[in-house]
Specification:
- The protein is an alpha/beta fold.
- The protein folds into three domains: 2-244, 4-Layer Sandwich (Glutamine Phosphoribosylpyrophosphate, subunit 1, domain 1), CATH 3.60.20.10; 254-448, Glucose-6-phosphate isomerase like protein, domain 1 (Rossmann fold, 3-Layer(aba) Sandwich), CATH 3.40.50; 451-591, Glucose-6-phosphate isomerase like protein, domain 1 (Rossmann fold, 3-Layer(aba) Sandwich).
- Helix 13 links the parallel strand 20 (369-374) and strand 21 (387-390).
- The radius of gyration is 25 Å and the shape is globular.
- The two termini are 29 Å apart.
- 2-deoxy-2-amino glucitol-6-phosphate is lined by residues 301-304, 348-350, 353, 356, 399-401, 489, 605-606.
């Protein structure tokens, strides 16, 4: 996610802003910028790259001024570049804005503003905001912001300064975090507590639908209608390290809890239930091309490969195009039979995995079109693919992938629907049902996360075992592969996943009294079959933990424990079922005293073969 810092007070703003941005670097970013206002004018400096590039641009001479805003950008719309970095300005340079989030309706706003003569410089969604404020400004910055945000759709945490109102910062929050810091003769705004913790421990945590106007001596909070809101002061007790994790003990747990927001952002501006439509701006697969498509390959490593295996089931079901899934390190050496009538989907959170990048290059060399699913704008994979879908999950810091995996599944759901709608391989009503169910996933994930305590207890229970098995049928099988990987890579427990029907062909020999077996049974058309496999395990006195859809009472009779997930469309179940698996693995690893965020022997991005 992007980082925001703002300051108004009696001290020079530039060093305070730069230091605050450095304390947000853990969030990941690709460019940075600051705007400093003194009595006469506003200095705007921004640069692609790390903050030290920005400092080099400043040449050691900080612009003077006691008010300003700063930003570190995690690109979503528009590649990393100087011009796409924040702050963004309007036509006159009177208004400067920093923003974290996604403005879903930015294209229509941009067209409307351009029709009124506004000239845009960047490729970003954010730039519509200063131009909207310019349009509405009539002597009151907060009023102009209020009118602007009433027309924005999507998520935003934003800060505005203007030379029209020196010594004032206006800010607003909807779905992206924002706080106001309360100092002595100085006040702050920030995306996150670490940015201002050295200056004050007194903050207002802004809620969705709240605006704030700060000066050096005042912090006034309002709702989006302009009604004053009384806020209580939150006293920060965390140290700097805990603050970076938003108070969570590990980045992994923080990122598991960020999934509802990541789902919402990844679907933002892309799914339209009322029309049953999918809009993928950076994907250009035409009807003729798709009608001639003979095969789809999905190629990736690790967790991304497991997402690809789920994608195979879904794309084949909705489009009836054959899909072959390959581990990237195998794909490039097996002399794959690829030609121009084949599409290769490359999945990579980092967009830098060496084997996956090599598979992309091999595919293109053999004439195939490449569609990339990646979480990092400007990554190598994103630059070399023909088409791209970004999972707007925000930076994933923990080595074990969680929110990237689940948003990869959502991206693959969107690809399957996108192709099926163009080829007409599914009825409108079915598409509308699935897309309507997708809209509910963020809230359903939030509900699931509320049952964390139960998962903590189960995770602690399995932490004492050396071997754990995962079994599933249909979509629950590739999902089990991901559950097993999560457990083994952070808790070092030996975990294996099997197609439930395969257990009796050998692995059942390893099941003995008390051995934990995790059994997702979300695919109701396969329930009876999987139930018989579960009974095979119980006959050997294994300890079975089922993951079932809400309302499935029958499963209780046959297993030792049941974790329920909210009911959704069967093809979307993996997006929710993976969450309890992530939490089980997390709490098992914590119980074993493992280094959850940085497991032994592993790296976040494997950029070597
Ligand atoms: C997942 O928890 C692991 N960290 C690892 O398997 C990872 O998914 C794999 O290395 C692929 O990384 P990528 O998605 O960045 O290409």
């Amino acid at each position: 996610m992007c980082g925001i810092v703002g300051y108004v007070g009696g001290r020079q703003a530039a060093p305070i802003l730069l230091d605050g941005l450095k304390r947000l670097e853990y969030r990941g970013y690709d460019s940075a910028g600051i705007a400093i206002h003194n009595c006469r004018h506003t200095n705007l400096i921004k640069a692609e790259g790390k903050i030290k590039v920005l400092e080099e641009k400043l040449g050691g001479a900080y612009p003077e001024g006691c008010a300003g805003i700063g930003h570190t950008r995690w690109a979503t719309h528009g590649r990393p570049s100087d011009v796409n970095a924040h702050p963004h300005t309007d036509c006159t340079g009177d208004f400067m804005v920093v923003h974290n989030g996604i403005i879903e309706n930015y294209q229509e706003l941009k067209e409307w503003l351009q029709s009124k003569g506004h000239v845009f410089k960047s490729e970003t969604d954010t730039e519509v905001i200063p131009h909207m404020i310019e349009h509405f400004y009539d002597g009151d910055l907060l009023e102009a912001l209020k009118k602007t945000i009433s027309r924005l759709e999507g998520s935003f945490a934003l800060g505005v300064i203007s030379r029209r109102e020196p010594g004032t910062i206006a800010a607003a929050r909807k779905s992206s975090p924002l706080i106001a810091g309360l100092g002595e003769g100085e006040n702050f705004i920030a995306s996150d507590i670490p940015a201002i913790l050295q200056h004050t421990r007194k903050v207002y945590i802004l809620e969705d639908g709240e605006m704030v106007k700060i000066t050096k001596d005042s912090v006034e909070v309002y709702d989006f209608l302009g009604t004053p809101v009384a806020k209580s002061v939150f006293e920060v007790k965390w140290d700097a390290v805990a603050a970076e994790r938003g108070g969570y003990p590990h980045f992994m747990l923080k990122e598991i809890h960020e999934q509802p927001r990541a789902f919402k952002d990844t679907m933002a501006g892309r799914i339209f239930p009322e029309k049953g439509e999918i809009r993928l701006d950076d994907v250009h697969l035409g009807k003729d091309y798709l009608q001639n498509l003979k095969k789809i390959f999905i190629v990736a490593c690790g967790t991304a490969y497991h997402a690809g295996m789920v994608g195979k089931y879904i794309i084949e079901k909705l489009t009836r195009i054959p899909v072959e899934v390959d581990i990237a390190s195998e794909f490039r050496y097996r002399n794959p039979m690829i030609d121009k009538d084949m599409l290769v989907i490359i999945i990579s959170q980092s967009g830098e995995t060496a084997d996956t990048l090599a598979a992309l290059r091999e595919s293109r060399k053999q004439g195939a079109r490449v569609l990339a699913v990646t979480n990092v704008v400007g990554s190598s994979v994103s630059r070399e693919a023909d088409d791209i879908i970004y999972t707007w999950a925000g930076p994933e810091i923990a080595v074990a992938s969680t929110k990237a995996y689940s948003t990869q599944l959502i991206a693959l759901d969107m690809i399957a629907l996108y192709i099926a709608r163009i080829l007409g391989t599914m009825p409108d009503e079915d598409a509308k049902d699935i897309i309507a169910a997708m809209k509910k996933l963020p809230d359903q994930a939030k509900t699931l996360l509320e049952s964390e305590d139960r998962l903590k207890a189960i995770g602690q229970k399995i932490s004492g075992h050396q071997d754990v098995f995962y079994i599933g049928r249909g979509l629950d099988y590739p999902l089990s592969l991901e559950g097993a990987l999560k457990l083994k890579e952070i808790s070092y427990i030996h975990a294996e996943a099997y197609a439930a029907g395969e257990l009796k062909h050998g692995t059942l020999a390893l099941i003995e009294e008390g051995v934990p077996v995790i059994a997702p049974v979300t695919q109701e058309h396969l329930f009876e079959k999987t139930l018989s496999n579960i009974k095979e395990v119980k006959a050997r006195e294994g300890y079975v933990i089922a993951i079932a859809n809400d309302g499935n009472e029958e499963i209780k009779k046959s297993v030792d424990d049941v974790i329920y997930i909210p009911k959704t469309h069967p093809i979307l179940s993996p997006v929710l079922t993976v969450i309890p698996m992530q939490l089980l693995a997390y709490y098992a690893a914590v119980a074993r005293g493992c280094d959850v965020d940085k497991p032994r022997n592993l790296a976040k991005s494997v950029t070597v073969e």
